Amino acid sequence: MPEIEIYTQRGCPFCVRAVALLESKKVPFKEINAPRGTQEREDAIRRSGGSTTVPQVFVGDKCLGGCDDLMSLERQGKLDAALGLGEN
Predict the structure, then answer these.
(1) Residues of the domain holding 48
(2) Which of 4, 7, 22, 33 is in the most buried spot, having the most CB atoms within 10 Å?
(3) Is the pLDDT score of 53 beyond 90?
């Protein structure tokens, strides 16, 4: 399974929702604190192709996007596959 990383910022309700969704999937993930003005936030912007908002979720090198993107994938029944669930 590829590594799952989520860049977040304290106090962000969208980050809380995205983290809760990942936790509900029972997948291991790394949460990276990325407040504005930090190197971590710059890393998230670079990796996402320029998106300046948090959260930003990555599976390996692939950016899944933010909270709305995760929720949309979940509604479409595509999030498990995007997270690599069921792969060996």
Answers:
(1) 2-81
(2) 7
(3) yes
